[in-house]
Amino acid sequence: MTLTDTPAPPPAKATAGSGAVDSKVRRLSAASAKRIIEPDVDVPGHVGDGQLLPDELLSVAGLDLDLTPEQRRVLSREEVGSITNSGIAFEAVLEAGFALEIAHRSDMTDPRVTFLLHELGEETRHQRLFIRMLEDIRPTAVHPLDKPLFRFFERRGINQIINRPAMLYTLVLGGEEIPDLFQKRASEHPDTDPFVKAVNRYHRQEEARHLSFARAVLPEVWEKARPVDRFLVRRLVPRIIQGMFDLLVHPGVYEVIGLPGWDTWKQVKASPTRVATRHEATRPVLEALIDAGAVRRGRVPAPWRELCGVDAHAQPC
Ligand SMILES: [Fe+2]
Ligand SMILES: [Fe+2]
User: pLDDT value at position 11?
Assistant: First the structure.
């Protein structure tokens, strides 16, 4: 870590955007500059050979399945593998969107550009650590949607998302809040694998800054959003977040331990434990949209109500 990364004091001439947001973003950059973690040096170690997550943190918790200890061990490893895989891919989409945003900026001295570069650095560093975890775990589950037709639509969808900042930032909030809750639970549980715990703790520290940044800039992103983007955020994005949540552990994971893939996945998706987790993980995203003026209390769109388990006033129901 060097002090040369510390951002310069605010220039006399204000850059674009609100002063309060500028100051907040500069503080986040300063925090990132002070806390540079190189995972290959600072997070040594490997994933253990046992069950990585305790029973109550497995996706099948509450389903009353009669699984042997070996099935639970393998399931926990495949679940962590599936979540880690999705995380690396999601972060790559975020990086593409942020890189594009920088490319389109006319003022590179805007403090948002500096923070985005810190965020890109943090994401790529912890992505390398996630890959190290995958090399240890060696998951074998085959994603049933890894087919040319799905990939075609996925590519088109990603191109849309990275070119629509309001959608991108809302999905960034979704993609960061959801793992944050899973990682909080895993890192606080005494029976989680020690290395998985350490990785989760490290990731959550960096993601806390990313969440603060996304929340801070969402109001100005929303203000600039075109009507079609506003419509997509209110109606389509909650469906995409639901899909992201449900596919964190994909059906192929259950097939590895001899369970029917899609049937088990559907049971997990509908289980009260899983639904409660989804509500808890996604409500902060809705709150951020309300704070940003994107959604009004009393008029919460139906897809957001369904995703978060709330009424039109954003109250749990
Ligand atoms: Fe991340
Ligand atoms: Fe992040």
Answer: 43
pLDDT at 273 over 80: yes
d(CA 203, CA 199): 6
Tokens of 38: 């190189």
- The answer to whether 137 touches 47, Cβ cutoff 8 Å, is yes
Looking at residues 222-250, what average pLDDT do you find?
97
What are the residues whose beta carbons fall under 8 Å from the beta carbon of 25, sequence distance 6 or more? Answer: 111, 112, 114, 115, 213, 216, 217
Share of the chain above pLDDT 90, in %: 94
Residue 14's pLDDT band (boundaries 50, 70, 90)? very low
- Cα angle 272, 194, 250 (rounded to 5 degrees) comes to 40
The pLDDT, as a whole number, for residue 173 is 97
In the reported structure, the alpha carbon of residue 185 is separated from the centroid of ligand 2 by a whole-number distance in angstroms of: 18
- Among the bound ligands, name the one nearest to the CA of residue 208: 2
User: Residue 126: which of 178, 88, 90 has the closest Cα?
Assistant: 88
The tokens 């983007």 sit on which residue? 229
User: Mean pLDDT of all residues in the chain?
Assistant: 94
Dist. CA 75–CA 139, nearest whole Å: 10
Secondary structure (H, E, C), 230-289: HHHHHHCHHHHHHHHHHCCCCHHHHHHCCCCHHHHHHHHHHCHHHHHHHHHHHHHHHHHH
Q: What are the residues facing 316 on neighbouring strands?
A: 310
Q: Which ligand is nearest to the CA of 87?
A: 1
Q: Does residue 3 surpass a pLDDT of 80?
A: no
Q: Which ligand is nearest to the CA of 97?
A: 2
* Ligand 2 centroid from CA 216, angstroms: 14
Six token digits for residue 150 = 């799905």
CA of 270 to the centre of ligand 2 (A): 28
Place of tokens 């305790």: 54
- Ramachandran assignment for 226, one of left (phi > 0), alpha (psi -120 to 50 degrees), beta (any other): beta
